[in-house]
Amino acid sequence: MEANIEMKREVEFGAAYRWQHWIRAVSIVGLTITGFYLAMPFVTPAVNAEPTNFMNALFRSWHMILGFVLIGAIIYKTYFFIFEKDNERERLAIKDLINPKVWSQTIGYYLLVSKHPKQSGDYNPLQFMAYFIFYILMVILIITGLILFVHSYHDGLGALLYTPMRSIEVMLGGLAWVRQLHHIATWGVILFVVVHIYMAIFNSVFRKEGAMDAVFSGLKWHKKK
Ligand code: HEM
Q1: Given a cut of 50, is residue 149 above it in pLDDT?
Q2: How far is the CA of 182 from the centre of ligand 1 (A)?
Q3: With 80 as the cut, is the pLDDT of residue 79 above it?
Q4: Residues of the chain with pLDDT > 90: what percent?
Q5: Are 189 and 137 spatial neighbours (Cβ–Cβ below 8 Å)?
């Protein structure tokens, strides 16, 4: 254990970044719950003489609302990653991704046999790969989700997207497979979320820089140079 290290608190995440993180987190939790209901309805509405308790429609509406919230947040985050002037450190992580030395040190760090590598950017290569796969899952969920959407909502955006989405549906092998793909990608996201939370706790405990706090307050502790 290193003693007497001087630390200073610096801004790690701006407000917009933290907001989009939590908007995505809340929408993903909501989408997973409502999505599993749509896959296999696990509650039934109170018995009524008239068929007025359209519970499935209610779950589907919330699923679609949260789906569009997620789409908005993902578009914003993609823009932020590529274009934001002050976000150089996220993009610099690509440099470490192609550096075999950083790769081996990172794997060694997680096996508890070596020190954490010096990173050029915000993410180590394993982290970057995990986030990259997460974005692929998001793209799959958004495209398959929009195909399912145009089959349930036919006005406005539903009408506008109908023809292009039907073409993608055919390319993917039909609606039944689109639904399966949407469901399988959901499990991929669940796996990601479990590992993501575990890693956030791991980093907070072992690196002692307040990694978990940073996504709430925006501030992280760094060693003074
Ligand atoms: C993290 C993101 C998402 C998760 C975890 C998720 C999860 C799910 C699950 C598990 C189902 C049921 C699939 C089945 O029948 O087996 C479903 C259905 C559906 N999802 Fe998603 N979804 C996500 C994103 C989206 C997005 C972005 C949209 C687009 C707006 C969307 C629209 C739909 C629609 C329209 C259905 C079909 C509803 C029905 O059967 O009537 N989803 N989703």
Answers
A1: yes
A2: 6
A3: yes
A4: 71
A5: yes
List of residues 6+ apart from 215 with CB closer than 8 A? 13, 18, 21, 22, 200
Angle subtended by helix axes 125-152 and 100-110, to nearest 10? 90
Task: For ligand 1, say whether the CB of 146 is within 6 Å of any of its atoms.
Answer: yes
Say yes or no: CB of residue 182 within 6 Å of ligand 1: yes
State pLDDT tens for residues 198-218: 999 988 888 778 778 888 988
**Residues paired with residue 11 on neighbouring β-strands, in sequence order:** 219
The answer to whether the CB of 27 falls within 8 A of the CB of 70 is yes
Q: Would the CB of 179 count as within 6 Å of ligand 1?
A: yes
- Write down all domains in the chain, each with its CATH number in brackets: 7-44+57-223 (1.20.950.20)
Distance CA 4, CA 217 (A): 25
Regarding the beta carbon of 183 and ligand 1, being less than 6 Å apart is answered: yes
- Residues listed for the chain: 225
